[in-house]
Design brief:
226 residues; binds zinc ion
């Protein structure tokens, strides 16, 4: 997908110096970042959250700049608070949230900023079970105002979900996530290049409202559907 985004290197360097004004010891690889999220979610579901990086010392440290280790592109649903379910703290996660994690230019720019300027090397597209936006896209009710924008964006996933075995909405939740991952991986010029050069990993996941567990989807999820 083409966009008009133009990010010359010199501007990125200048932006980096403004927003990452201090040095963090940690600079995790995409795999290490993913592992940190998996471990945080494991602590959360077992009732052993340590709530890291949430004291006043951390507040003062991140006031100097930020270096989030992961970007979460998630649903706005109030039941999926990202820092809590991944057991992280201030300055750890750069979060872009809209209903149904539908993204467009402003969201894409936010993700590109977090990767290219702040240095995050992992994007997790995080859907969740019983997502109202996805359920609405499956039923296509009459909705007021701009809600239709969300439904139109999720409709291809809802239509694909009907072709497969199992619960329509739960299928659509996963398919929507997988389609969004695919879209972001192909997004020019920043993300497609970073993914190709292995500087950025983009992965899909679904949070289970019942269990609190985050299930990460395989890269080939769309091809595994029956
Ligand atoms: Zn939702």
């Amino acid at each position: 997908m083409k966009t008009n985004m133009y990010l010359p290197t010199i501007s990125l360097l200048a932006l980096s110096s403004i927003f990452c004004a201090y040095k963090f010891a940690e600079d995790p690889s995409p795999e290490q970042a993913l592992q940190k999220l998996k471990e945080g979610n494991a602590r959360f579901i077992s009732g052993k959250s340590i709530r890291p990086n949430q004291d006043m010392e951390r507040v003062k440290l991140v006031a100097e700049g930020q270096k989030p280790f992961a970007i979460i592109v998630g649903c706005s649903d109030s039941r999926v608070p990202n820092e809590i379910i991944f057991d992280q703290g201030l300055g750890d996660l750069f979060i872009v949230r809209t209903a149904g994690q539908v993204s467009s230019y402003a969201s894409w720019g936010s993700m590109e900023f977090a990767h290219a300027v702040l240095g995050a090397k992992l994007i997790v597209v995080l859907g969740h079970t019983k997502c109202g936006a996805v359920a609405a896209a499956c039923k296509v009710p009459d909705v007021p105002g701009h809600i239709v924008t969300l439904i139109n964006a999720i409709k291809p996933a809802a239509e694909e979900a009907r072709k497969h075995e199992g619960d329509e909405v739960e299928n659509a939740v996963k398919i929507n996530v997988a389609m969004q991952v695919k879209q972001l991986k192909g997004l020019e010029p920043v993300m497609s290049k970073a993914v190709k050069n292995n500087q950025l990993k983009i992965i899909g996941a679904v949070y289970d409202l019942q269990t609190g567990k985050v299930e990460f989807l395989p890269d080939n999820y769309l091809e595994t559907l029956k």
